[in-house]
TrEMBL record, chain A:
<dbReference type="GO" id="GO:0009055">
    <property type="term" value="F:electron transfer activity"/>
</dbReference>
<dbReference type="GO" id="GO:0009061">
    <property type="term" value="P:anaerobic respiration"/>
</dbReference>
<dbReference type="GO" id="GO:0050660">
    <property type="term" value="F:flavin adenine dinucleotide binding"/>
</dbReference>
<feature type="binding site">
    <location>
        <position position="392"/>
    </location>
    <ligand>
        <name>FAD</name>
    </ligand>
</feature>
<comment type="pathway">
    <text>Carbohydrate metabolism; tricarboxylic acid cycle; fumarate from succinate (bacterial route): step 1/1.</text>
</comment>
From TrEMBL, chain B:
<keyword id="KW-0812">Transmembrane</keyword>
<keyword id="KW-0408">Iron</keyword>
<feature type="transmembrane region" description="Helical">
    <location>
        <begin position="31"/>
        <end position="58"/>
    </location>
</feature>
<keyword id="KW-1133">Transmembrane helix</keyword>
<dbReference type="InterPro" id="IPR034804">
    <property type="entry name" value="SQR/QFR_C/D"/>
</dbReference>
TrEMBL record, chain C:
<keyword id="KW-0479">Metal-binding</keyword>
<dbReference type="InterPro" id="IPR050573">
    <property type="entry name" value="SDH/FRD_Iron-Sulfur"/>
</dbReference>
<keyword id="KW-0560">Oxidoreductase</keyword>
<keyword id="KW-0816">Tricarboxylic acid cycle</keyword>
<protein>
    <recommendedName>
        <fullName>Fumarate reductase iron-sulfur subunit</fullName>
        <ecNumber>1.3.5.1</ecNumber>
    </recommendedName>
</protein>
From TrEMBL, chain D:
<dbReference type="InterPro" id="IPR000701">
    <property type="entry name" value="SuccDH_FuR_B_TM-su"/>
</dbReference>
<keyword id="KW-0408">Iron</keyword>
<keyword id="KW-0472">Membrane</keyword>
<dbReference type="InterPro" id="IPR034804">
    <property type="entry name" value="SQR/QFR_C/D"/>
</dbReference>
<feature type="transmembrane region" description="Helical">
    <location>
        <begin position="98"/>
        <end position="116"/>
    </location>
</feature>
Length: 599, 155, 260, 130
């Protein structure tokens, strides 16, 4: 067992992790632990753009951006956070440009901007060009640029180190009102070196979680195989709540059957959606901004077209994204990669044929709750000193119940930077927290269980069954019945999971073992998502309950907070499901009052 | 734990190879060698094609080649310069080419050095020898018994 | 700003084939994988796996099928599964490709499909190689923007043409398909390799960068650009379609231009 | 470091195979050149020695060898020009494959008349006597 000591340990080297590393690395002794080589992180898959009210091509300001974010999130957004993000967006983009990011340019040489779903001028009057972009590889450029700057600043990476546990200690503390509670403190993390199979303990004053999303709970997803929600799962197991997990974004345009994403930028550049009758059906659902309505609305409209029998293809199970009226040269200049995906993976030529698309699981709006300085909360308002989270793993919450396109690349940059600065600042003043006794015990037990269990169940099969039921019952449309079905299924999967067999018994590069560990996180998160979805008896943003189709501000204008609590046993009520206790947290309002969300 | 700031811990583990790329030499030798290959190549085309043409194509081709033929050519300074240039350029070009090949295939520094030493000595010997032959050549050696070029006056 | 696009029609006639369509064909394939696990044996072995796959499946899907259904110990890297993360470069039927971008139907499935790790980097297990030497070279070319001028308050200006100048080499995903396809790199592992040169090119030709000279100096090394023998394996292998040999030629010319 | 599994042949394309050809022909020519300078040096030793050795070049086996050598030189030379074009001509890399077909065509165009002429001389003299 090796013990390393760092001021700051960053878990994850995607956009959020590396943005934090650049800040923290220059201020404090920092290590970045990542289960993938940094440039393999899924930030690199992001395509369309990153929004900031630069007003380079038309009038715009950060306040409109805040409004769009709040409205896009169906008013479940914490408005103080949204303001921070929209305001700092401008600097975030400029920072990236100065780091060398090759944005597309306007004829005057400024950063070019394009339209994106839900981004409007003057509080919804008309679409606005706000997304800064580099063709349809904005995320790729961000990831590369950040990695390049990490190289520049000699950031220390531990590549292919899986963090499997967070080390915290709990101390009794008294609140101002005299109540006694258990205060968590951050001591470090336990990680598994993929190459050798050895455990390494990293003692740290600050830990930043930046492990990205959890899209693999679904079958059809734009997310990478490696996005298994590790950070959320680890935090949850440590008694840290997860916020707003019922809100998962389904991106309208995934390649049908595959889930590979075709960026919203396609529609931003003029592509339109059609049903089997050739009709531009978004005209019916969002008369003003049509195909550029926010994702939840478009995804639902598409699913509805298919449900009502206007789907295309042999099974009538997808709709079409039509780019054929665009100039091939324009497509090549602005959308080269996604058109290549259509050609490579579906054999469709987007110049002349419409592309089959269907909603694909895309983004977790929820996650580890933090405040606007990215400090992780152990309940509604108690900060865990030294623990930070940023990026998709976190819930600040700037996305509310539905994230606007381009706001995530923004999120990782704004809050990644904040996390890096805050974590380093804290580490420079704080002392190390003593490691708990036997810090690796839990991880050893976890791995031993997975390694030695010999019931013959296959990890991949359980995962597939989980993803199938999530796709069937937890996707765009949800009902109490479908959600209860998922919970019943998960109970079976959990039992099966206790009987898995991992074939690879070796130490070197044992990905078989780690897939089993990751499945554990997926099961946990799927359950949290479903329980939270069951609890939220209304429809809002990405969460649509057919049995409760209206938004219900009176009862549900609040965040949900899910805690691991073994004391909660199965009662078939929406309030409590085995092992999970649900609470709520108020939404922060500053200047916008909820209105009906129409586009 | 790694002390080197940039290297990931993997690079000091036992199984990882060591990177011994020496610091930049600061000279542009490789660039000039590269350039030379191209320049000499272009000139060599003319020289070698001319050489081949005259030796193999004109008249009776290869059957015409004998001492007299060679002597006849080298009596003319034009062919002396021609052949000298060809000798030098081809040898330098070829030597540098083989040097590249040694760099490619001989991985260990020791092997590289040995092979290159052999190469350079061999090349130097050949270049010197060839040059001497062209310049110190006497087209009408005394005591020759076979067909000397016609301009030799019989002793 | 770009010209406003004409509003497309609300309704169009769809071609017939989009409403209907046949079943996706299935076929049997055999993967012939070069296995290596030093915990078991120092020797590598070939192993065959046969399975039924669909017309839209890729080599990565076949590898997954093996790992998930037949032999969990088969080890390879992958993440994004659509050719943007650079994890799964491997040698498929003798050529470097990304497993997630190689459709089975585009290969000859009547014969076993050979799958091997990329060449020239130390193999760690099955299809996993040690990428450290590769990244080492990348880091050595100063792959980051260096700008000595005073910082403008807003973004630096760059004309669309200047931006276009280095567009091709910004696409690199550091998959190593190029470097590990290069005959020079196989035998002389010290060669910087095409990927490092591509990433140097990305900055050398960026009008905002001031360290081009230093990068040219680095690549003027005896293990630098002059090592390239224009074999084009890199260009053929690059999953991002980067014109690598061309980029290398441009760097060579830049070095020449600066010295002469 | 674990032993590397022995690799199979990389299936390169035109670019790689033309380079293999260029390299092999280069070495062949170089070795020939070493020998050729040595044998030519015999003119310094004595005309007899030279003529005796050069006589060896005149039998048909050597004649075929010479044809091979010329083929190698011609390929190396033309492909050398192709490489130079790739290095210095902007569109060279793009058209490298076409350039290679060009090299092979030129090679054929050069070799056919040469072979006709050369082999006629070699064989007619051998069979026809001098
Ligand atoms: C196809 C696609 C297109 C998108 N397009 C856009 C867009 O146009 N605009 C936009 O704003 N957003 C877009 N998004 C969303 C956005 O890209 C992501 O939400 C964002 O990049 C997440 O960044 P991250 O840094 O949080 O996580 P990631 O980039 O996913 O990084 C996660 C990191 O955590 C590490 N990690 C994970 N688990 C562990 C562990 N257990 N131990 C150690 N390390 C671990 C991984 O190695 C990785 O380095 C898109 C998303 C997808 C999938
Ligand atoms: C006839 C005209 C010739 C031309 C145009 C020519 C051209 C070239 C060029 C351009 C190269 C560089 C290749 C590269 O950098 O990748 C080269 C390499 C080489 N040449 Fe020549 N050459 C000619 C004649 C010769 C001769 C006469 C010899 C032998 C003495 C020779 C031996 C070599 C060798 C050994 C190499 C190295 C090959 C390699 O590195 O793969 N060449 N030639
Ligand atoms: S240049 Fe192409 S092949 Fe090489 S690493 Fe980059 S993307 Fe991969
Ligand atoms: S394969 Fe190698 S030799 Fe040059 S053209 Fe590419 S770097
Ligand atoms: S898995 Fe990402 S490139 Fe293939």
């Amino acid at each position: 067992m090796q013990v390393h000591k760092y001021d700051v340990v960053i878990v994850g080297a995607g956009g959020a992790g590396m943005r934090a590393a650049i800040e923290s690395g220059q201020r404090a002794h920092t290590a970045v632990l990542t289960k993938l080589y940094p440039t393999r992180s899924h930030t690199g898959a992001a395509q369309g753009g990153m929004c900031a009210a630069l007003a380079n091509v038309e009038e715009d300001n950060w306040e409109w951006h805040t409004f769009d974010t709040v409205k896009g999130g169906d008013y479940l957004v914490d408005q103080d956070a949204a303001e921070v993000m929209a305001k700092e967006a401008i600097e975030a983009v400029i920072d990236l440009e100065k780091m060398g990011l090759p944005f597309n340019r306007t004829p005057e040489g400024r950063i070019d901007q394009r339209r994106f779903g839900g981004h409007t001028r003057d509080h919804g009057k008309a679409p606005v060009r706000r997304a800064c972009y580099a063709a349809d590889r904005t995320g790729h450029m961000i990831l590369q640029t950040l990695y390049q700057n990490c190289v520049k600043h000699n950031v220390e990476f531990y590549n292919e180190y899986y963090v499997l546990d967070l080390l915290t200690v709990e101390e009794e503390a008294t609140r101002e009102d005299g109540t006694v509670y258990l205060q968590k403190k951050t001591a470090g993390v336990v990680s598994y070196d993929l190459a050798t199979g050895e455990l390494h303990i990293f003692q740290a004053k600050s830990v930043i979680l930046a492990t990205g999303g959890a899209g693999k709970v679904f079958k059809t997803t734009s997310n990478a195989h490696t996005l298994t929600g590790d950070g959320m799962g680890i935090a949850f197991r440590k008694g840290i709540p997860l916020e707003d997990m019922e809100f998962f974004q389904f991106h309208p345009t995934g390649l049908a059957g595959l889930g590979i994403l075709l960026s919203e930028a396609a529609r931003g550049e003029g592509a339109i959606l059609r049903n089997s009758e050739g009709e531009r059906f978004m005209e019916r659902y969002a008369p003003t901004i049509k195909d550029l309505a926010p994702r939840d609305i478009v995804a639902r409209s598409m699913a509805n077209e298919v449900r009502e029998g206007r789907g295309c293809g042999p099974n009538k199970d997808y709709v079409l994204l039509d780019l054929t009226h665009l100039e091939p040269a324009h497509i090549d200049a602005k959308l080269p990669d996604i058109t290549e995906f259509a050609r490579t993976y579906l054999g469709v030529e987007p110049y002349t044929e419409p592309v089959p698309v269907f909603p694909t699981a895309h983004y977790a709006m929820g996650g580890v709750p933090t405040n606007i300085t990215t400090e992780v909360l152990q309940d509604n308002d108690t900060v865990i000193p030294g623990l930070y989270a940023a990026g998709e793993v976190a819930c600040v919450s700037v996305h509310g119940s539905n994230r606007l396109g381009t706001n995530s690349l923004l999120d990782i940059n704004v809050f990644g930077k904040r996390a890096g600065i805050a974590a380093a600042k804290y580490a420079l003043t704080a002392d190390f927290v003593e490691l708990p006794e036997n810090p690796e015990a839990d991880t050893v037990a976890l791995l031993d269980h997975v390694r030695k269990s010999d019931g013959g169940e296959k990890v991949a099969l359980i995962r597939k069954d989980l993803q199938d039921t999530m796709d069937a019952n937890m996707q765009v449309f949800r009902t109490a019945d479908s959600l209860n079905k998922v919970l019943a299924d998960i109970a079976v999967f959990e039992e099966r999971y206790s009987r898995i067999t991992v074939q690879d018994k070796g130490k070197r590069f044992n990905l078989d073992l780690l897939e089993a560990v990751e499945l554990g996180f997926l099961l946990e998160l799927a359950k949290v998502m479903t329980v939270a979805a069951l609890h939220r008896q209304e429809s809002r943003g990405g969460h649509y309950r057919e049995d409760f189709p209206e938004r219900d501000d009176e009862n549900f204008m609040k965040h949900s907070m899910a805690y691991l609590d073994s004391g909660v046993t199965v009662e078939n009520s929406a309030e409590s499901i085995a092992g999970i206790r649900l609470g709520t947290k108020p939404v922060v309002f500053t200047r916008y009052q909820p209105m009906v969300r129409k586009y | 734990m790694s002390t080197n700031a940039i290297a990931s811990p993997r690079s000091d583990s036992a199984q990882s190879p060591k990177y011994t790329r020496s610091k930049s030499s600061g000279s542009s030798f490789e660039m000039f060698a590269w350039l030379f290959m191209r320049l000499s190549g272009v000139i060599l085309i003319v020289l070698i094609f001319g050489h081949l043409f005259v030796n193999l194509m004109v008249g009776e081709g290869i059957h015409a080649i004998d001492f007299g033929f060679v002597a006849g050519k080298w009596a003319d300074p034009f062919w002396q310069v021609w052949d000298l240039a060809m000798l030098w350029l081809a040898m330098l070009h070829g030597t540098n080419g083989v040097r590249t090949i040694i760099n490619d295939y001989a991985e260990r520094a020791g092997t590289r050095l040995t092979l290159k030493t052999v190469l350079f000595i061999a090349s130097a010997v050949i270049i010197v020898l060839g040059t001497l032959v062209i310049f110190t050549f006497d087209p009408c050696p005394p005591g020759a018994v076979i067909d000397l070029p016609s301009f030799c006056t019989v002793p | 700003m770009e010209t406003e696009l004409p509003e497309p029609a609300s309704k169009i006639e769809l071609p017939a084939h989009l409403g209907g369509g046949g079943e996706i064909p299935t076929f049997d394939v055999t993967l012939r994988v070069r296995r290596y696990n030093p915990e078991v044996s120092e020797e590598s072995t070939w192993e065959n796996f046969t399975m039924t796959m669909y017309g839209t499946d890729r080599v990565l899907d076949a590898l997954h099928k093996v790992k998930w259904e037949q032999d969990g110990s088969l080890t390879f890297r992958r993440s994004c599964a659509h050719g943007v993360c650079g994890s799964d470069a491997m040698r498929i039927n003798g050529r470097n490709r990304l497993a997630c971008k190689t459709l089975l139907k585009d290969l000859d499935t009547s014969k076993p499909i050979t799958v091997e790790p990329i060449k020239g980097l130390p193999v760690e297990k099955d299809l996993i190689v040690d990428m450290e030497p590769f990244f080492q070279s990348f880091r050595e070319v100063m792959p980051f923007l260096v700008n000595r001028g005073h910082e403008p308050a807003k973004e630096r200006l760059q004309s669309a043409e200047d931006r276009e100048r280095f567009d091709d080499t910004t696409k690199c995903i550091l998959c190593a398909a190029c470097t590990s396809s290069c005959p020079v790199f196989w035998t002389d592992g010290q060669y910087f390799g095409p990927a490092a040169i591509v990433n140097a090119h990305r900055f050398i030709f960026d009008s905002r960068d001031d360290a081009g000279d230093m990068r040219l100096e680095i690549l003027n090394d005896k293990e630098g650009v002059w090592r390239c023998r224009t074999t084009f394996n890199c260009t053929e292998a690059c999953p991002r379609g980067i014109q690598i040999t061309q980029a290398i030629a441009e760097v060579k010319q830049a070095i020449l231009g600066r010295s002469i | 470091m674990p032993t590397k599994p022995a690799g199979t042949l990389y299936r390169g394309r035109e670019g790689m195979w033309s380079w293999v050809g260029h390299r092999i022909t280069g070495v062949v020519i170089f070795i020939f050149l070493l020998v050729h300078v040595l044998d030519t040096s015999l003119v310094r030793v004595s005309p007899e020695a030279y003529t005796a050795v050069i006589g060896a070049y005149k039998n048909p086996i050597m004649g075929l060898g010479e044809a091979g050598l010329v083929a190698a030189i011609v390929f190396h030379a033309f492909n050398g020009l192709r490489i130079i074009a790739i290095d210095f001509w902007k569109k060279g890399p793009k058209y490298q494959r076409q350039l290679l077909w060009g090299v092979l065509a030129l090679w054929a165009v050069t070799m056919i008349p040469f072979l006709i002429r050369h082999l006629t001389i070699v064989f007619s003299n051998f069979f026809g006597g001098h």
